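Bit of a strange request maybe. I'm writing a small parser for structure token strings and I need a real example to test against, not something I typed by hand. Could someone generate the tokens for this chain?
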Amino acid sequence: MWCVALRASQQLRVVRVGAGLTAPSLLALGQACPNLEELACTIIDAPPVRDMHVGALATACPALRHLELKGSGCEISDDAVID
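Reply from user aminoacidic:
Good idea to test on real output. This should exercise your parser:
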């Protein structure tokens, strides 16, 4: 069952998460869904999402074109967003 879910997640292109994510769960999502083109989620600050997390997400999901991170757990610079 786990293998089926993993294969299915690799096909996801758009993910919108209503519940709060942490930096580690954001990275795990990116690694599980390498074909993401669009991701929208709320971030909680335990630990906060920083520039290095956004960079790792971009590396794991090279097709990512739209990233919307909301919440108190975002500490991202303008440079990270542009990159």
